[in-house]
Amino acid sequence: MSKPNYVFVVDTNRKPLTPCKPSIARKLLTVGKAKVFRLYPFTIILNKEVVDTPEPLTLKIDPGSKVTGLAILLDSNLIWVAELSHRGQSIKASLESRRALRRGRRNRHTRYRQARFLNRTRSKGWLAPSLQHRVKTTITWVNRLLRCSPIKVVFQELVRFDLQQIENPEISGVEYQQGELAGYEVREYLLNKWDRKCAYCGAKNVPLQIEHIYPKAKGGSNRISNLCLACEPCNIRKGTKDIKVFLAKKPDVLKRVLAQAKHPLKDAAAVNSTRWTLFNQLKETGREISTGSGGLTKFNRTRLELPKTHFFDAACVGDTPELLVLANQPLNIKATGHGSRQMCRTDKFGFPSRYLPRFKFVKGFQTGDIVKAIVTSGKKIGTYAGRIAVRSTGRFNISATIGLIQGISHKHCQQIHQKDGYNYGF
Q: What is the pTM of this model?
């Protein structure tokens, strides 16, 4: 059984109230008892003060390197879900491009910014800009949700993997080895490391088995560096053969498997680097903070028979009810940034190629605003909604669901959501 996302409600003093169903929100808007307060996340504001105490909600977060899952629960009802896409990779690429241009100018002995290598110190808890972005973006959305919903408890998936058990499967302690989470940490780690597909044939969406690269019968260990995932036919064909014998006719596959077996998890490392910073900043919100591991998240998701998605992972973080009433249509949030502070654009050699307009606003709009355009005449008749890129001519480009629409006059545009550094979709 599934239900649509609930609607957030605040009273006239912007006090967060218990979210309501979309049908109730529609009635309140129709009779004039409420107005639309914010489009993303969709929030209505009542025209009166409410003194009743709202029901407490639970916010669950599944931090990720590329996508973070968000879920809000009311008892056993999953009332709101979202997936937040980060732009850490693009930040890293921009910094590398800037570094390359600066080094090029220094090597050419032209006018350049002086190198500063020995006069900088990093503060305690310093994170790289791409990692700091992940933390700040997540905290931004946590604060937004706190302003429009009465959240009492926040759950965070703090430990992605139990590294102690992964490095030493023979760790002593019967309860630790034979608990109900035994094996879930290793399986989750391998699923992430091998991209949820067979290491030998690349098969996806099939049952996968844990496979020893160097057979255990011939002295192979249970260490994580000797484990991979294989589909049942490949696992049977390999049996106790040495991997070099099994893949003798596939040298490319052999090289890839051996290299990936030693390859670290870059995304997992990014999450591990930011987890404590995120945890400490969540504590500053004043809410009760609880944590859980990635193995427990997968255990809960498997128990509830939920598909592998970021928002369902978030819903299964930490303590999870025995039954969940599911929500659909997750809000897809993509971080786009607030633009660049460059005074001009450069070519591939680092020389100025074109200058940017002095003023960001054109006819009351700026790049990044979400608008609705109704064109009633001409070759582009239709209704378009999306993110705009302004032009000094007053004819804008709109990134709609059907693609990029160019040359739409500002006279046809109506702002429905002000630029905030994110793009939205369902």
A: 0.76
